[in-house]
């Protein structure tokens, strides 16, 4: 009996082995369930990161206030068409940068992205501003004297003198210097007007600085006058009689502070400023006189453009 059962088992095993297909020889005869399917990428959840206390996927777009938004970068032409890319030549950083769009500055306001780039001004407004500037420029050119727009005034031509040696052949009436007004228009020649400009810019303005808001006005004590020196009988004709001199008695700052030669000379901060102005006039002018010169100049500075062989005369 045991022999019969053993024979039956061997027969069943032999039959099963014969019925199994030879997969190594005939792969096209494999059952459909045994054919290997192509592998597909499995989408994995993006890792989470923490930004400003919020947990968000690492590949999510996060807009932080004060930073420009991230724009999708278009791939350069060489990256999308590898067939025409030179073999063995890698793109440089300049090639990559040339294909990146400029980021638009923006901020996050009330949950909305707002561009911080200023909008274009209306054309009408631009034209209005430009017209105003052209008008101001023409006004300066019309008021310019001695070929310098910084010197504003009026050309008056020849000024005759009643005494021998007086008079100004090509006189101008100076009203302001680089925006600094004169208390009264001063008649002089262009050489003296340009000297006044050099002194105002390089002496008076620097000496005052920002004190009181800066220099705003100059008080003129005397300009052209056909007379002798210090009005003394028998003296020579003054440089005032030739349009080459100006006397200054005080200067004013933007807030109305007065720097008086008579009251402030040698006293405190204002006195030190006046002394610097007096010293700075030596060079632009040939003669510089102040309170220390004589009794005739206790209350003003006298500047004139007379020249001497020994150089400027300053007292």
From TrEMBL:
<keyword id="KW-0732">Signal</keyword>
<feature type="domain" description="Extensin-like C-terminal">
    <location>
        <begin position="164"/>
        <end position="315"/>
    </location>
</feature>
<protein>
    <recommendedName>
        <fullName>Extensin-like C-terminal domain-containing protein</fullName>
    </recommendedName>
</protein>
<feature type="signal peptide">
    <location>
        <begin position="1"/>
        <end position="19"/>
    </location>
</feature>
<dbReference type="InterPro" id="IPR009683">
    <property type="entry name" value="Extensin-like_C"/>
</dbReference>
<dbReference type="Pfam" id="PF06904">
    <property type="entry name" value="Extensin-like_C"/>
</dbReference>
